[in-house]
Amino acid sequence: MRLAYRTGLGAITVLALFLVLFPFYWAFLNSIKRPEETFQPTWIPFLQFQPTLEHWRSQLATPEIRHALLNSVIISIGAATLALALGTLAAYGLARFRFNRPSNGALTTWFLSQRVLPPVMFVTPFFLLMRQFGLLDSVLALVLLNATFTLPFAVIILSQTFRELPRELEEAALVDGASHLQSFLSVVLPLALPGLAATWVICMAFSWNEFLFALSLTSKSAIPMPVIIAGAEHTRGVQFWFVGVNVLLTMLVPIVLALLAQRYIIRGLTLGAVKG
Amino acid sequence: MRRAKPIRFLLLPFLIVLLAACGGGEQQTGQKSGVDEGMAAEAVKPGAYKAPKVAEPCGNDCPYEGDTVTVTVNTAGKEGPISGPLYEVRDEFEAATGAKLEIVELPFAEHFPKLMTDLTSQTGEYDASIAGAWWLGDLVGGDFIIPYDKYYNDPKFPQWDDQDVLPGPRELLYYGGKKYMVANDHDGQVMYYRRDLLEDPKHQEAFQKKYGYELRPPQTWDEFADVAEYFNGKDLNGDGEPDSGLTMHLKVGGQGMFHFMSFSAPYVIGPENPNLYWFDPENMEPLIDSPGHVRALKKLVELTHYGPEAMKAWSLGESWDYFLRGEAALTFTWGDLGALAQQEGSKVKGKIGAAPIPGTTEYYNVEDGEWVKSDEINVVGNTTGGSWAGVISKFSDAPEATYYLLALMATEEKSTVYAARGWDGVDPGRYYHFLPPDGTGSMENYKKAGWNEGDAREYTTAYFDNFNAEQQFPYLRIPATFEYWTALDTNLSDAVTGQATPEEALKDTAGEIEDITERLGREQQLKIYKTSLNLE
Amino acid sequence: MDSASDNSRSLGYETGPKAAPSKTRTDYTKFVFIGPAVIWIVAFTIFPLFYALYTSLYTYRFGQRFGFVGVGNFTRLVTDENLLSSLRVTLSFVAGTVTVEMVLGVALALLLSREIRGTNVMRGIATLPLFATPVAVGYLAITLYYEQDGPINSLIQAFGGKGIPWLSDPFWALVAVILVDIWQWTPFVFLITLAGLQGLPSELYDAARVDGAGAFQNFRYLTLPLLAPLLWLILLLRLVEAFRVFDIPVSLTLGGPGRATEVYSLYTYRTALRFFDHGYAAAQGILLLVIVMLIVSLIFSRIRGLYEEER
């Protein structure tokens, strides 16, 4: 019975992974098929159709694409790090201190509300704002905006992470004469590594894929990948090979970053074994 | 007991994939793309046929030294439609004027909004835009662009003649009597059919027997329906799978409403009603739910039965692909299809027939409110589509350099090559694009661009007839045109997918149109509508 | 102090007698922590918020302010059939996606929380969809959902079923959009839940195993209650995001067929950036804010118990 149970779990896991990976496989196929073959029911290169590396070659050779990738990297890492810095502090404040008016619940709700309004309402005011400060078509503008709008993730996820940490270690540090800030930095943060890493990854992913502000506030030098991808839709329709190549290209960097961050999620487990 | 090795299970998905692949793959055996009875589709690579140089380098005496011209265009890359020619002409332009050319590619759907943001905030980052014809209502109405009348005859700019443009597309260059758009692309929809199928004696015999008249390129929508019905379900490309009578691109936001405009024109426009399709010129009430429009929509819905179900969600690419794979006998759409048929991967090169959009034998005169029978077939030409052409921003600080660029691209030498090449998205619309006896163009030009002779003749004749037709579909160019069209687009999709009857769909459209007109100010809209149609 | 019960219940604030000695320091310190984030957000959003409010009081023509209408834009909201339709579509969408994503995400996290060889890689794979740009995923899905022998229909047919009219049928189109969203955002739930699981103390499970508890009981009586606060927050985050879903319905179906997948954000987007009716769009945004915050507050008031101090 044990075997059947584990086998069942194994099968489900594999199925889940297959479902996750299949669209990427299809994107890959699209990227090596000739445009007119996009809709042919051919699944296996070489066996069923002649693949072409032309699309990859042309995209990688395009300076705009490389430039956009770089922009995306700067924007998302910058925004995620900034959001994490601000958010971690605020999260700790919400987790360990009581606020009276407004209450902790109200504050959390307020942070959450930042993600509710459709961004299209803010396009014009931010356009005007950035124009005022000469930040149109600048990577900095997008770093700042994305930090602002991914900050709620950091606050909300991390406040819960902090709440769940046992208080003893912080109390011990306080008794030893450390300030709240010191105990936070030296005791709490290391313990919260899994949550921090996960949050950083989330903020990075959201900033990486942000489209609307990227489109409205950039025109030449600060264009990130999502705008490039939106350009897949030509007057003649979507260029699926373009999408195929670019969706995979666009994912490479965040994946590498996320895999690096993932190590911290695991490390947290071994630390946890020392707890108590 | 160690956990079971999940690796084993990784085989399972691959088996599934193989199964599905082979199941679907069956039809593909024995099919080489493009090679068919000796009509190999030769690919003509974009760089091969270049537009000739027209402007001399200015050397030391450059008129616009230091200017930068920033042009927005639909994203398509250096070798893509509409944007390609800009890249191609950049060096020549910069050498001839001393000015610098910045090309800003914007995703097609975001192009107009981004332009408007720039204009309404008076940022002035863009000097020109290769704009869609329907933008003019908002652009001129909001006083955002300047007319180029004063530059047109000035010899210091490249010379081109707007009278070279056929009457239909020519109208779109002007607004309120002034020149705003510098001629570039000329869009319109024609009907395409499979020449090989319609000329096949086997089919001709069977068709005659079933319908009682000769099989020929349909001249009315009723005939179109018959031909589509006849071919529906037959194998049209030799792969053993049943194909369709027709294909259309009906996706919401996929320019499906353009289809309806071309389609329904002959049901509403006729000799006694040459102009009134959109609004009543007395009170600006919408005409979109007139009996003529309704009958057209009913016919369109009928036609959807002779095509693949999926086409209700298809945008241009998917529908054209379908036709190019040889799986449909009929379609009606833009000039891109004819050009795409010449390229590698097309299975229908050499088999294209083209003709103007079918007409009707009875149309509805909205003025008198009654049906009019017509002895001759009532045909209406159309300039449906974007007809992407340059306009100059009021906030440009280099309007002359900007006009120079646009005029350079409009010269006869360049335009001739642009129109023949499929990849650059510029379609024929001037007399020198069309073959004799219609115009003064040459077959050599088309062959150099890789066209099959027969296809080229069919294609150019169809477009000539279309643009030269006496009756032309009135193109809507008033403020909020896109908003009106979106109302039509979504309701059309409702009708076509059965979520509403044609009457309901068009009535809803009329209601939404009314709301828009009310909101924007009826009097104002009425005035502009009449101006845009030269009705007083 | 019973460490086990403390671990499982110390979810509250610094409020007991222990807080008294450092009360004055605490007062300032808490502002030091929360201050930067609050100031940052206020600085960036105060102008846009007021601008949006101001905008909502006017009508627009050619993208420019035209006439003052006060609450005119808001009353228009109530009679707008299309707006109500988009709200309905959005609600269906939210219900369909959030529920499934929560269940699947948590299940996946549980599945991959065990430390066995290979789970690292599998976890990595499970988070991949998060990095795919949503717009691109929508376009990609067009090829996946292609009804004439596209991959999904081919798979269905290989198993003996009939192809589904994914994009041309109003009902299936919404399902198609929902499925894509599930594919993309379940990893979000998965990732955070996983981090949460990693943070759970293992002594509890050791104790439970000694008591003879099985996996399911572990989950129901240990894991779930411990994770509950985090899960509710994840749900709220997903809920809020789902209400403003945009990229996928736009790139996959653009709201079609008809208005079957026209979500609220798309309608607002169209109003602002296709029709240039910024005033009405601002009003729509404000309405969405009100609706969503109402729902969020409702949920919050129910679950407040989880966050309040027990004593």
Q: Estimate nothing, just give the exact number of structural domains of chain A.
A: 2
Beta fraction of chain B: 5-15%
Uncertain segments of chain B of ≥5 residues (pLDDT<50)?
1-14, 21-43
Biggest sheet descriptor of chain B: 5 strands, mixed
Compute the average pLDDT of chain B: 87
**First-to-last CA distance of chain B:** 91 Å
Q: What is the average of the pLDDT values of chain A?
A: 84
The most extensive interface, with participating residues per chain, is:
A-C, 114 and 112 residues
Please give the CATH class of the largest domain in chain A: Mainly Alpha
Radius of gyration of chain B: 25 Å
Q: Which value, in Å, is the CA radius of gyration of chain A?
A: 23 Å
Structural features, described:
The complex is a heterotrimer of chains A (276), B (536) and C (311). Chain A has 276 residues and is mainly α. Helices cover 73% and strands 1% of the residues of chain A. Chain A folds into 2 domains: 22-52, no CATH class; 63-269, MetI-like fold (Orthogonal Bundle), CATH 1.10.3720.10. Chain A has 12 helices and 2 strands; from the N terminus they run H-H-H-H-H-H-H-H-H-H-H-E-E-H. In chain A, strands 1-2 form a two-stranded antiparallel ribbon. In chain A, a hairpin with a 2-residue loop joins strand 1 (233-234) and strand 2 (237-238). Chain B is of the alpha/beta class and 536 residues long. Helices cover 40% and strands 12% of the residues of chain B. In chain B, the strands form 4 sheets. Chain B has a 5-stranded mixed beta sheet. In chain B, strands 8-9-7-10 form a 4-stranded mixed beta sheet. A two-stranded antiparallel sheet of chain B has the order 5-6. In chain B, helix 2 (83-97) crosses helix 14 (399-410) and helix 18 (481-496) packs antiparallel against helix 19. Chain B is globular and about 75 Å long. Residues 1-14 and 21-43 of chain B have low confidence and may be disordered. The two termini of chain C are 15 Å apart. Residues 1-25 of chain C have low confidence and may be disordered. Helices cover 71% and strands 3% of the residues of chain C. Chain C has 13 helices and 2 strands; from the N terminus they run ααββααααααααααα. Chain C has 2 domains: 3-55, no CATH class; 73-308, MetI-like fold, CATH 1.10.3720. Chain C is mainly alpha-helical and 311 residues long. Chains in contact: A-B, A-C, B-C. The interface between A and C is large, with 114 and 112 residues.
